[in-house]
Structure formats: C-alpha cells, structure tokens
User: Which sequence fits this backbone?
C-alpha cells in the first residue's frame, strides 16, 4: 500500500456520515479536493449497503456501483478486514468498535499520518479511550468548520452545487441553508451565510 501525500489527515467516515446525502456529498467532495484522505473498511461498506438499500428501497446491486466508484476515486480508502484491531477496546459502544478498528488499521497502514473518525454518534465513542489510542473524534459541524479556512473556495463550490446534487426524486428543491440546518450543521450554515451576505470571513 502506498502512503498518501505527507501531512494528509486520514479520516474514517462512519456509516452514519455516508448514509446522509448531505454529509456524504460534502465529505467526499472535500476529500476529492485533497483536504483529507477518507478511510473505511469492509464492515462499513457492508453496513452502508445494507442500510442504504433498506432506507432508500434501492437494489443493493445499484448501490454497489456507487461504492465501486468511490473506491476508484479513493484507492487508499479501504482498510480491509479490521476485526483484529478491535482487541483491547472496552469503553466505547461495542457496535461501533469496528469503526475504531478501521481507524487503528489506518494508523497501522499510514503510521506517519494523524487519524480521525467522522461520526454523528459522538456518545458511542469514549473520549478517553480514543485519546489513549491517539484517535480524534469529529462531529460533522466541527470538522467542516475547522476545514473552512483552508478549503474555503472548495466549500463555496460544493455548497452552491449541493441543492441539486442531493435532491431526492419527486421532492422539492431545498436551499443550501435549509439542507445544512436539517443536518444540524449550524456553524457551517453561519459561515455560508457570511458568503451570501458579503461579510468578511474570519
């Protein structure tokens, strides 16, 4: 496995992030622009395919095409079978041990890179346990906001495209602001508002 470019943060995308059209669009868009290296595992892949097929009532075979496209875009993302990296975990929710295991596998595969987890389920990850493992847990709003200064131009492009990109068939088109607030990205919505009102971003 080839290492990603120097100083590229590895970010494990939890299933709950990938299942959200808005969070997935922003995360993969920013990753494609080079702001971080996404990571996942076979377990996350299977969990996403199962849940997405059920929630969206879409055939698994169609969703597999999407996943194959992501793996082609991000050939370093798949950390493979990570069960062995669950050893020693105790305080986080067992149903999310596989996500921490993916992060530990990324640490093993990319020893010189910082590794984080992006998840909506913050309560399932014990902060002290992650700190001991030198893994950072990010909530989506905080993660995007800390990327904003370096990724400002890419954010603007993505946020402009987002309403059409994530629109569900037969549903009304929602504004970027409405989509961000629906996903509880309140601080990112404020940054977006400064762009629309012409205020200076700080």
Assistant:
């Amino acid at each position: 496995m080839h290492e990603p470019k120097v100083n590229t943060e590895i970010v494990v995308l939890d299933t709950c992030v990938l299942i959200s059209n808005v969070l997935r669009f922003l995360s993969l868009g920013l990753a494609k622009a080079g702001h971080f290296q996404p990571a996942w595992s076979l377990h996350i892949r299977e969990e996403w395919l199962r849940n997405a097929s059920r929630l969206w009532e879409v055939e698994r075979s169609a969703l597999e095409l999407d996943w194959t496209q992501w793996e082609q875009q991000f050939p370093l993302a798949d950390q493979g079978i990570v069960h062995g990296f669950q050893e020693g975990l105790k305080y986080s929710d067992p149903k999310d041990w596989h996500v921490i295991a993916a992060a530990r596998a990324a640490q093993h595969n990319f020893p010189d890179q910082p590794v984080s987890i992006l998840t909506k389920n913050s309560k399932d990850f014990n902060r002290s346990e992650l700190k001991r493992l030198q893994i950072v847990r990010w909530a989506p709003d905080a993660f995007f906001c800390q990327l904003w200064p370096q990724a400002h131009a890419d954010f603007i492009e993505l946020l402009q495209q987002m309403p059409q990109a994530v629109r569900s068939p037969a549903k009304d088109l929602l504004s970027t602001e409405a989509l961000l607030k629906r996903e509880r990205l309140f601080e990112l919505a404020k940054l977006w508002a400064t762009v629309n009102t012409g205020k200076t971003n700080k």
In short: The chain has two domains: 10-140, 143-196. Residues 19 and 52 are 6 Å apart (CA to CA).
